[in-house]
């Protein structure tokens, strides 16, 4: 176990809807990164939060947004869902923003119909 | 843009065979390099990492990787694989480009026949 928990484990939405995914970081970690992993591909970096501020972003549109809370838990929000957003969403926490070691959760499987 | 390429998507080996998985990255600045592994039914976990110093790094379970800066490569090796090494292996690069980013390759699925 990594100490990183994600909820929900599975989710089904329809196109155009909005979704919020949640992540609880490992104790003592102040940095969280979110990834999208499509079937058969590697994790694609969405963004990273460090002490409640976004400090790195991948090539994802603005409808992908996030929050990190004072207790370092985190949310990923996706608006106006598209079919291609169907994927496994992974949260990873680390001790600091250098990401010397990422601790991954088991992910949320999102299906958009 | 920063990217990571893994040469093999699927590898099948017999037990005791030697393993080498290729990884190349495209970024000219200072990078930190990683191999992560995902065993069936488990989370992604760190196998080994290179930050600085000796370019030959050793990780868990007998794995090692060599950083060759001139080739932008960080290949993973193991002299003799075991059935329990069956997993998916991801190469990753971390750099500070407009913020901190850890970028992963597409992964290599390794199946070791007993």
Q: What do these coordinates show?
A:
The complex is a heterodimer of chains A (113) and B (114). Chain A is mostly beta strands. Chain A has no helices and eleven strands. In chain A, the strands form two sheets. In chain A, strands 2, 4, 5, 6, 9, 10 and 11 form a seven-stranded mixed β-sheet that branches. In chain A, strands 1-3-8-7 form a four-stranded antiparallel β-sheet, with no helix packed on it. The N and C termini of chain A lie far apart (32 Å). The model of chain A has no long low-confidence stretch (mean pLDDT 94). With 114 residues, chain B is mainly beta. Chain B contains no helices and twelve strands. In chain B, strands 2, 5, 6, 10, 11 and 12 form a six-stranded mixed β-sheet that branches. In chain B, strands 3-9-8-7 form a four-stranded antiparallel β-sheet, with no helix packed on it. In chain B, strands 1-4 form a two-stranded antiparallel ribbon. In chain B, a hairpin with a 3-residue loop joins strand 10 and strand 11 (100-104). The N and C termini of chain B lie far apart (41 Å). The chains are: A mainly beta (113), B mainly beta (114). The A-B interface holds A 2, 4, 33, 35, 40-45, 48, 50, 54-59, 90, 92, 97-106 and B 1, 4, 6, 32, 36, 43-46, 49, 51, 90, 94, 98-107.
Number of helices of chain B: 0
The shape of chain A, in one word, is: globular
Multimerization state: heterodimer
**Largest sheet data of chain B:** 6 strands, mixed
| Proportion of strand residues of chain B | over 45%
Report how far the terminal alpha carbons of chain A are from each other.
32 Å
Unreliable stretches of chain B: none
Our count of helices of chain A gives 0
């Amino acid at each position: 176990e990594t100490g990183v928990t994600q909820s929900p484990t599975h989710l089904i939405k329809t196109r155009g809807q909005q979704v919020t995914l949640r992540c609880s970081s490992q104790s003592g970690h102040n940095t969280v990164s979110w990834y999208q992993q499509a079937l058969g591909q590697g994790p694609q970096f969405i963004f990273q939060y460090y002490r409640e501020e976004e400090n790195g972003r991948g090539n994802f549109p603005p409808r992908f947004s996030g929050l990190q809370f004072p207790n370092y838990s985190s949310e990923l929000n996706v608006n106006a869902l598209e079919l291609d957003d169907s994927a496994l969403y992974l949260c990873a926490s680390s001790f600091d923003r250098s990401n010397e070691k990422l601790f991954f959760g088991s992910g949320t499987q999102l299906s958009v119909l | 843009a920063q990217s990571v390429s893994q040469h093999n998507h699927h590898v099948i080996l017999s037990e005791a065979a030697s393993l080498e998985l290729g990884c190349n990255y495209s970024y000219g600045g200072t990078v930190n390099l990683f191999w992560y592994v995902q065993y069936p039914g488990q989370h992604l976990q760190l196998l080994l990492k290179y930050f600085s110093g000796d370019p030959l790094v050793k990780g868990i379970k007998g794995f090692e990787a060599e950083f060759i800066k001139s080739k932008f490569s960080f290949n993973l090796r193991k002299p003799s694989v075991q059935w329990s090494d069956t997993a998916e292996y991801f190469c990753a690069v971390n750099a500070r480009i407009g913020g901190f980013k850890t970028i992963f390759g597409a992964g290599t699925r390794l199946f070791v026949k007993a």
